[in-house]
Amino acid sequence: KSERMAATSKETFKGHNTNPITLARFIMDHSIEDHSVKTSLAFILQAIGVGAKVIANGVARAGVQGLYSLGGEVNVQGEEQKKLDVLANDVMINTLVGTQKVAVLCSEENEDAIIVEGAKNAPYAVVFDPLDGSSNIECNVSVGTIFGIYCNPDNEIATLADVLQPGKQMVAAGYVLYSSSVVMMLSVGSGVFGFTLDPNFGEFVMSHDNLKFPAMPKQIYSINSGNSELWDGPTKAFVTWTKDQKSAYSLRYIGSMVSDVHRTLLYGGIFMYPAD
């Protein structure tokens, strides 16, 4: 009888996910021994998820709401900020400050790190680029949000040093891609997992479980070859090697890091961003 009921249930709800793994559920179920760390990470990642939903809405409506135009400021990279950059930055800062779990914020759009008043003893620091690739958004190129989270549990007070750590010290990192769908790719130290925003009920639901590179990756390399004269010798030699293979690598470069990295994760290949 139970087998017939299971079969009937599968047939009745075919095409529907009756056991969705949301972002918060994933963190609470994940193999993190310290329960307080789980809870804090769930708060922070949920805040990033909320911010991503607001940014996704802004990206989708940027044309009709006039968010393509310049905002009149220049960020720390010397790039002119667009109104959408400013909106995305404000959203990320406000949602993360609201968790009361983050003591230091470091954004590509701000010259200085933000020490959060009232949360100086909080154990977490978050670094982020609120809208990577926004210079190409007028032509509907996919853009994204990049983030990394550090934990400093023994700090008595927050300082800039909290974010000046090696990447391997991060407790979580990922990005959100704004494209035909909104996808968050995330690692909390073991494995890479993807969550797609379900527009029907507004939640990020797991869509990529412990993602691996394909066994037979595509022979694609992704690099800004316009800067090739400025690369060092080993980089030039490696790119030449990819072209000299019997089955030569194809160049695919979108110019939005999140888009290029996402394609590389799904299809395999090589992504490079060498110094120039």
Can you describe this structure?
The chain has 6 helices and 13 strands. It starts with a helix and ends in a 5-residue tail after the last strand. The chain is 30% helix and 24% strand. It is globular and about 60 Å long. 33% of the residues are buried. The strands form 3 sheets. It has an 8-stranded mixed β-sheet, sandwiched between helices. Strands 12-11-13 form a 3-stranded parallel β-sheet, with helices on both faces. Strands 1-2 form a two-stranded antiparallel ribbon. By secondary structure, it is α+β, with helices and mostly antiparallel strands.
Quick overview:
The protein has 276 residues and is α+β, with helices and mostly antiparallel strands. It is 30% helix and 24% strand.
Observed structural traits:
276 residues; globular; 6 helices; three-stranded parallel beta sheet; eight-stranded mixed beta sheet; alpha+beta
Note the topology.
Layout: H1 2-12, H2 23-29, H3 35-60, E1 70-74, E2 80-82, H4 83-97, E3 102-107, E4 114-115, E5 124-132, E6 143-151, E7 172-178, E8 182-187, E9 193-198, E10 203-208, E11 220-222, H5 233-244, E12 250-251, H6 257-267, E13 270-271
Parallel strand pairs: 3-5, 11-12, 11-13
Antiparallel strand pairs: 1-2, 3-4, 5-6, 6-7, 7-8, 8-9, 9-10
Tally the helices: 6
Give the strand order, joined by hyphens, for the main sheet: 4-3-5-6-7-8-9-10
Largest sheet: 8 strands, mixed
| Strand and helix order | HHHEEHEEEEEEEEEHEHE
Helicity range of the residues? 25-40%
- Any idea what the shape is? globular
Low-pLDDT segments: 4-8
The secondary structure category is alpha+beta
**Beta-strand content bin:** 15-25%
Rg calc = 21 Å
- The average pLDDT score comes to 85
Note the gap between the termini: 67 Å
Task: Say how many strands there are.
Answer: 13
